[in-house]
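quick one, 146 residues, struct below
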Amino acid sequence: MDSFELAALPFLAGYPDGEPLLSAFSERSHAAGEELFHRGDTVEGVGILLSGRIGIRKETGLAGKTQVVALLDAGAPFGERALVGGTVHRSGAVVVEACRVALLPVASWELFRQQEPELALMFQGWLLAAVIQRLEKASERLAHIL
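---
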């Protein structure tokens, strides 16, 4: 099983002290099959998958059925809505393989953003790049279907 450590975030290589960001995260473990969150749940924060695999699910509109639209591996962020004022999840997440996640709670993010604006901006840039990559992969899959 691949794993990822927060200290390996690429933008931290150019920043002398990433401790303020790293210490704002809390780590949690989850078993395979566990629902991390459902569509409509309150957003707790942004997570980074440290190990295992998570499936992001969206409702299809067909009798309450859902479809996995993304499989996330170690190093992938999720719950990004937390950093842009989103209060509820628009999709669900299920643990596909037992995992460890690091969670940055919304309140900790707000405090961190005020205290360390330069590092917060670098984190947001990394997060945006990861989301763009995920969107590009989803677009490629959709293009093959059509």
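Helices lie at 19-22, 106-115, 117-145.
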